[in-house]
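Justification of computing resources. Each target in the renewal requires a structure prediction run like the one illustrated here; the chain below, 72 residues long, is used simply to show the kind of job we budget for.
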Amino acid sequence: MNGLGRAGMYFALFTEVGIVLALAIVAGIAVGAWVDERLQTLPIFLLVGLLTGMALGAFAVHRIVTRFLARF
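Resulting structure tokens:
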């Protein structure tokens, strides 16, 4: 288990999942807010960016967890 032990591997997994999910959501919100500012359509693209970030984050988390579970 790479010297980390089982608890360390799970800690690394949960940390990676949290960071990836948070970054995807924040990036989606930032892009949506930027587009809204340019087009002056305040809540529309912010919400689209939020939902897109959540969806992409969930997809990324699914890939991370699937690869992690394939090792066992």
